[in-house]
């Protein structure tokens, strides 16, 4: 049997998917750090071992993400836009827009006929609207990301943050804490600020939105996002969508080595 490997070397996390055709056989994610190339090799071997796969049966490996130019073991590389579009259009052909929230940026991808990319927007290098903003919030509130994710926001209200800048918003959070505001209200307000920043970059009605990226693990954030985007969908592969898309491209020989 032939297998294909997709790598997404992101600014914060590296994701790996090994697939046979359209079936995911194994996956992993770990924090991107120095020496990530050797870590990737060891993780691929571990995934293969756990799933009874010989690494020699991996026919092609593709890579995307911030580190895509620095992994020598890949057969081809391509953009995150093309990779995530491939994954979402395969998983849910009804999706008309992708919202991919990464550690250092977010991407809005509009899908056209047959999953083609009709338009996209990538945020500037600012923590606002990214997973890093959420990490900073957790640190400020002395919570782990898992604890932050588990906070019940069903009765929370938006007490308002005036800034969409992560630095200034952090200062506002400090002020709200000092004023004794309720924790769920603070969290809800920060999430609403992040989402407001993201939605300001939409240039059309979103329709059915596919959420991808590591933020899908944050249940409390996703709950607020659903309030503002009722047609939001999260899939089993959402967290590793870029790596999944690369594996699909590898299997289908859809390669753009100029990307």
Describe the structure.
This protein is α/β, with parallel strands linked by helices. The protein folds into 2 domains: 113 residues, Nucleotidyltransferase, domain 5, CATH 3.30.420.40; 142 residues, Nucleotidyltransferase, domain 5. It is built from 8 helices and 10 strands.
Q: What keywords describe this structure?
A:
single chain, 259 residues, alpha/beta, Nucleotidyltransferase, domain 5, 2 domains, five-stranded mixed beta sheet, 10 strands
Examine the secondary-structure arrangement and name the CATH architecture of the largest domain.
2-Layer Sandwich
CATH class of the largest domain: Alpha Beta
| First-last Cα distance | 29 Å
Largest sheet: 5 strands, mixed
Assign the CATH topology of the largest domain. Nucleotidyltransferase, domain 5
Give the CATH superfamily of the largest domain: ATPase, nucleotide binding domain
The percent of residues in helical segments reads: 25-40%
Give unreliable regions as ranges.
none
**Record field, number of beta strands:** 10
Beta content: 15-25%
Strand order of the largest sheet: 3-2-1-4-5
Q: How is the quaternary structure best described?
A: single chain
Average pLDDT metric: 89
What gross morphology would you assign? globular
User: What structural category do the secondary elements indicate?
Assistant: alpha/beta
Q: Roughly how many Å is the radius of gyration? A: 19 Å
Query: What is the chain-wise order of helices and strands?
Result: EEEHEEHEEEHHHHEHEH
Helix run count: 8
Q: How many domains, as an integer?
A: 2
């Amino acid at each position: 049997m032939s297998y294909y490997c997709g790598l997404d070397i992101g600014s914060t996390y590296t994701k790996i998917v090994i697939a046979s055709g359209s079936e995911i056989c194994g996956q992993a994610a770990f924090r991107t750090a120095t020496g990530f190339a050797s870590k990737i090799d060891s993780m691929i071997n571990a995934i293969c071992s756990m799933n009874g796969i010989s690494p020699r049966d991996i026919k092609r490996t593709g890579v995307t993400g911030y580190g895509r130019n620095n992994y020598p073991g890949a057969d081809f590389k391509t953009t995150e836009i093309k990779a995530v579009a491939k994954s979402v259009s395969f998983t849910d052909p009804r999706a008309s827009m992708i919202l991919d929230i990464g550690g250092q940026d977010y991407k809005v991808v509009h899908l056209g006929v047959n999953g083609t990319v009709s338009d996209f927007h990538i945020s500037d290098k600012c923590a606002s609207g990214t997973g890093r903003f959420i990490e900073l919030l957790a640190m400020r509130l002395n919570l782990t990301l898992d604890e932050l994710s588990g906070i019940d926001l069903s009765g929370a209200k938006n007490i308002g943050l005036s800034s969409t800048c992560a630095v200034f918003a952090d200062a506002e959070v400090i002020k709200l804490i000092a004023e004794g505001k309720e924790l769920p209200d603070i969290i809800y307000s920060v999430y609403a600020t992040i989402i407001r920043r993201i939605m300001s970059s939409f240039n059309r009605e979103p329709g059915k939105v596919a959420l991808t990226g590591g933020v899908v693990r944050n249940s409390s954030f996703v709950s607020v996002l659903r309030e503002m985007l009722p047609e939001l969908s999260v899939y089993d592969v959402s967290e590793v969508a870029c790596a999944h898309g690369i594996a699909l491209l590898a299997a289908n020989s859809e390669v753009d080595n100029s990307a």
